[in-house]
Write a structure and sequence with these properties.
The chain is built from one helix and eleven strands. It has one helix at 2-16, and strands at 23-31, 37-39, 44-50, 54-61, 66-67, 73-76, 78-80, 85-88, 91-96, 99-104, 108-114. Strands 1, 2, 3, 4, 5, 6, 7, 8, 9, 10 and 11 form an eleven-stranded antiparallel sheet that branches. Strand 7 (78-80) and strand 8 form a beta hairpin. The longest helix is centred in the first third of the chain and has 15 residues, at 2-16. The protein starts with a helix and ends in a 19-residue tail after the last strand. The model is unreliable at 9-17 (pLDDT under 50).
Length: 133
């Protein structure tokens, strides 16, 4: 029985993912080419990296505190440089502590902060409503 414990724990770690990108990230602002940080004015974006290779992103509403379900889109990401860099389409991301910097199309650098607490993204699956009697 003990011989099965270690493989089961390793399989669980593999199944839940060990990437530093995992979780939800909320836009803070833009890092200008001169290195100055400029806070986001208006609508923010949010990112969510799910194991094994799915990234969701959408528009975050400050007042509601959630991502608008009608804006959520999906993409596939992969990691490089020993899980230090993630690539999804034209977005290249790097994690530094609890901040993520994403460069879009090679010139616009946006900074995100890791979201702690309840999820800000809508669920992947909506259950159908039960008929009322």
């Amino acid at each position: 029985m003990r011989t099965l414990a270690l493989p089961c724990v390793l399989l669980l770690l593999l199944a839940t993912g060990c990437t530093r990108f995992g979780g939800e990230w909320l836009e803070e602002g833009i890092v200008r080419p001169d290195g100055q940080f400029e806070p986001t004015q208006g609508r923010k974006t949010a990112l969510r990296f799910d194991w094994p290779s799915q990234m969701r992103y959408g528009s975050y509403h400050d007042r509601a505190g959630v991502v608008d379900a009608s804006t959520v889109q999906y993409d596939t990401y992969w990691t490089m440089q020993w899980d230090r860099v993630a690539q999804a389409g034209q977005v290249t991301a790097r994690v530094e502590g609890d901040r993520l910097t994403a460069v879009v199309s090679g010139d616009t650098a946006k900074r995100y902060v890791k979201v702690r607490g309840p999820s800000i993204f809508p669920p992947l699956v909506k259950l159908p409503a039960l008929p009322s009697q």
